[in-house]
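Mods, move this if it's the wrong board.
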Amino acid sequence: MTTGRLIALDADDLAVISAHVQDAKVQTADIVWRQAEKRLVVGMNRLDWEQTLKGETEPRRLIAALRFDRVLSCKSRNINLEAPETTLDLLGIEFHPTEAPGGSVVLLFAGGGALRLDVECLECELADLGPDDLGTAAAGEDAEPSGLEA
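Not the wrong board. C-alpha cells:
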C-alpha cells in the first residue's frame, strides 16, 4: 500500500512527509521552480517505506511529486541545477519557523546539497504517481531519469 497523497500544513506534518521521502532519488531536471506561481515541484523516485518495513516483498520505488506552494524564494547550495542528469539523494526535509505562519523549508541532500524555500506559510503535498514499473531505480542503485515533468 502506498501513501497516495500526504499534505503538510505544519512542522509535524512535514516530518511525516520527510520520513516518506528519505533516500529518494531526485534528478536536477525534475526540480521545477515556478516563481510566478510561488511553487516548487520536485519529481522523485522514492522508496516505498511502508512496503519495505513490512518486509512482505522486495523493496520497490515509487514515482512521486513533492509540491510546495506559497514559496517566496528558492535558493540552492552545492547543487548544480544546470546539470540536468545529476542524481541527488534526498536525506530529509526540515521546517524552520520565522514570523508565524512563515518560515524556511530546507531540503537536505547527500554531499552537502540543499534547497532553501522561504515560505509565506507551510503548504506541502506529496503525491505518489505510481510504481516505478520500468525498474529505473532499483532500491540501492543510482536512479535513471524518471521522465517526470512537473
